[in-house]
Amino acid sequence: MRRFVSFGLIALLVVLGLSAERVLHMYTALDENEWPIYVKAFEQATGIKVEVVRLSSGELLARVEAESKNPRASIWFGGPAVDQIAAKKKGLLAPYKSAMTEKVPETLKDPEGYWVGIYFGAIGFASNTEILKKLNVDPPTSWYDLLKPEFKGKITVAFPYTSGTAYTVLASLVALMGEDAAFDYWKKLDKQIQQYTKSGSAPVVQAGLGEAAVGIAFAHDIIARGIAKGYPLVLTFPKEGTGYEIGAMSLIKGGPEPDLAAKFIDWMLSVEAQNLMKEWYRLPANPQAEVAAGAIKLEEVKLVPMDFDYFGKEKDRLIERWKEEIEYGR
């Protein structure tokens, strides 16, 4: 009898163990309305259940670092590659290469396989047309337009240390102006800011609702969360040049389900999965995937050359300087 019970318990534990192996634990920096598009499709295609925790990109990096001795998730999905480059520098990621990652252009992935791009997009300005009319001012088409007196206290952007979007703004300015000049510029911009947000896409909604005149965010978020929703917004870009991101995904070193994470990466780079990005107006990394009508292509915008490796490695230092000179230096 004891032997029978023992075998029964072992069998039960085996069954439970197999069930647990079919759950992929994921951290994502994608919008709470966007990540379910891909996760639900992956679950339907593979039968693998996914448990998701959504964090802003900066918070996600901090979480992965805090859990490095006992990782709770296996995959980092979405958010600017610079944060995953920073994670690679800290030894928090594991390399992974497959036939699917080979489909991605070399400029959109880590040569050692620590991260791979899934989309890319440019920073733009979301301006509320009704407020612009009241202020009798044109939508900004220059970084320096944001310093106009009409926009004082009427601009929103996220904190660079909680949002990958806002860190991309900071990196863009450094790439365009040089570091010292970029910080001098932001000190002037800070006087124009109505509110800093935690999420990089939140300024789009604020501008759409008329809570701000201008929100600084990624173009795909401005279209998906603003213009496509019917908000009175217009999208413009700075004529001097704007920065851009490579949205990426990576394996978290020591994560509990590396095999399932690898399956997700392979699936997410497929044409089937990349085509889903049309719903959020993103530009897919797989060149064979479809692009949504109305999406802004990078060749349509003047871009600032971005050294992603540099800005990934220098993120902590630049963020600390931003806190000291901008947030604490008021």
**What structural class do you assign from the helix and strand content?**
alpha/beta
Report the sheet-strand fraction. Answer: 15-25%
Largest sheet: 11 strands, mixed
Calculate the terminal CA-CA distance, rounded to whole Å.
Answer: 75 Å
What's the gyration radius in Å? 21 Å
Which residue ranges are poorly predicted, with pLDDT under 50 across at least 5 consecutive positions? 1-20
SS element count, helices:
13
Provide mean pLDDT, rounded: 92
> Share of helix among residues?
40-55%
Instruction: Give the overall shape, derived from the CA principal axes.
Output: globular
- The tally of strands reads 11
- Spell the H/E element sequence: HEHEHEHEEHEHHEHEHEEHHEHH
What keywords describe this structure?
single chain; about 325 residues; alpha/beta; eleven-stranded mixed beta sheet; 11 strands; about 40% helix
Structure overview:
Helix 3 (57-66) runs parallel beside helix 4 (81-89) and helix 6 (164-177) packs across helix 7 (179-190). Strands 1, 2, 3, 4, 5, 6, 7, 8, 9, 10 and 11 form an eleven-stranded mixed sheet that branches. This protein has 330 residues and is of the alpha/beta class. 40% of the residues lie in helices and 19% in strands. It is globular, with a radius of gyration of 21 Å. It has helices at residues 2-21, 35-46, 57-66, 81-89, 129-135, 164-177, 179-190, 202-208, 219-225, 258-268, 271-275, 308-313, 315-327, and strands at 23-28, 49-54, 75-80, 93-94, 116-128, 155-158, 193-197, 214-218, 233-236, 244-252, 283-284.
Question: What's the short story on this structure?
Answer:
The protein is of the alpha/beta class and 330 residues long. The chain has 13 helices and eleven strands. The radius of gyration is 21 Å and the shape is globular.
